[in-house]
Specification:
Largest sheet: 8 strands, mixed
Shape: globular
Distance between the termini: 29 Å
Bound molecules: flavin-adenine dinucleotide
Strand content: 5-15%
Number of helices: 20
Helix content: 55-70%
Amino acid sequence: METTEKDILRGGQFLVKETLCEDVFTPEDFTEEQQMMKESVKEFNDREIIANRDRFENKDYAFTEQCMKKAGEMGFLSVAVPEEYGGMGMGFVSTMLVCDYISSGTGSFSTAFGAHTGIGTMPITLYGTEEQKQKYVPKLATGEWFGAYCLTEPGAGSDANSGKTTATLSEDGKHYLINGQKMWISNAGFCNMFIVFARIEDDKYITGFIVENNPENGITMGEEEHKLGIRASSTRQVFFNDTKVPVENMLAGRGEGFKIAMNALNIGRIKLAAACLDSQRRITTTGVQYANERKQFKTPISDFGAIKSKIAEMATNAYVGEAASYRAAKNIEDRIEIRLNQGNSHQEAELKGVEEYAIECSILKVAVSEDVQNCADEGIQIFGGMGFSEDTPMEAAWRDARIARIYEGTNEINRMLSVGMLVKKAMKGHVDLLGPAMKVQEELMGIPSFDTPDYSELFSEEKAVLANLKKVFLMVAGAAVQKFGPDLEQHQQLMMAASNILIEIYMAESGILRAEKNAKRFGADSQKEQIAMAQLYLYNAVEITIKNAKEGIVSFAEGDEQRMMLMGLKRFTKYTNMPNVVDLRNRIAEKVKSENQYCF
Ligand SMILES: Cc1cc2nc3c(=O)[nH]c(=O)nc-3n(C[C@H](O)[C@H](O)[C@H](O)COP(=O)(O)OP(=O)(O)OC[C@H]3O[C@@H](n4cnc5c(N)ncnc54)[C@H](O)[C@@H]3O)c2cc1C
């Protein structure tokens, strides 16, 4: 059946519209083809990457390049590339899946893979002219060539449009001369081509260029950076000194570079979330295996409640991260299809499809990058002293996870973007937040219902709680927008608090919908632990919401308004039947323990 516009949520709409579990895609919906792809990627990861972990930790940059070549031979670099340019032209979900399962061996390889297939290749597939695509994309798709992305400069990081690199048109009008210094460039040491952003004259916005890596054309490099993690990912400074670039290598139009950079990052963000998933599965598995083996006080440490709690939380966050990442990926895929059916070119369809869900991309980037970091941190703790040793995989996983909170837009920037974009969408009328926010206001003024609802149906109470969390967001963010208007962006601590609530809502809802869908089709009995994970996640989400909403309310509201909102917060974060959190954790942990692995 053809997907139609009204079937799927618009970006950000999750906040004001209820989604049915039948309408979300979950990892259990992978097609046979996707399952095969997953197995083949896992096998590659085990054989080529994980088996050679030491080489990555010993900064064997050449080995990273070699693995990238092999990934190219296997076709993994070409999943997202349209068939007419030598790619597999697979859908967005499949692209995410490859990114997910190829990324857990080491952050060194996953960064090389992400930088090449994402920000190194996508700007051309999305914005290139036909000639540019014909010339470069087939080589990038096979791994004959590798790409890198040069946006960041010593003085221009988060403020990406402030770069000082210049592009000056030559007298004969045939070339641009690029001059400037780029920093933190992944894959710089072995790439054949860069996407470079530079400013023409005193344009407001930077412009993108495709620049071939030719040392005889004024391109020099700094030494490899010595980094906390992702040690065998090549990261260098790149200097351009009168580097000649033919005018036909400009990407899109003059001054379009900032747009390209931001859209490439949108895609990069959701893929980065995917790239943090399998690490969580593996860390959880490695952690539980160790905990089952390791005895203290004549007891396997996995029998201790303190350790069970860690295992349960690690598994829960991984499960919910999967749910949310693939839910959003399928929304993007469907949106692309709708656009294609409407006659958009592939390029336009993909761009608009991803742009629509930029809010979700930012949410996922933040949530999953922080989950993987916490997961690795608890992984070390489960290993005790051994966790601190380079002889076990936890410390490298922890170091490698750290970068995900920094690149593709720091988590601070993405937190602010998620709320900022939502407010903008509401102002443009793309998502009606005002109506629902007014309703919440009315509800606050009214007398609460004292009926005891019937919560016998699976997740009925959780859904009511979730609906109330959405009201909390609308209440707090709505009042903040009313008070500060467009100046809200200047109140960063409020933006951060609001985004923390927004993130939890999306993640908790995704977890519930996944577990509900699976309970309906596979039977609730077979999903006991998954249901427990969805419930545990929601419980945690409520606590995070209370903390952040309260912080906001007491900081910007006063007197009666403050009292009313605090009462509203209490009312909207209430369970009729509190879950037994310890029981939930124990149930989840027992399952993971008995399977001796992450098993969902
Ligand atoms: C290993 C590695 C690989 C990388 N690969 C690439 C690559 O391939 N290509 C590329 O172009 N770049 C790459 N980067 C650069 C990366 O994207 C930047 O480091 C990142 O965007 C942050 O910029 P910055 O380091 O200048 O930090 P800054 O922008 O100086 O930020 C420092 C701190 O201030 C905060 N901050 C900054 N601005 C604001 C604001 N307006 N409001 C609130 N807080 C703010 C940040 O969140 C952060 O916590 C890489 C970086 C690393 C470390």
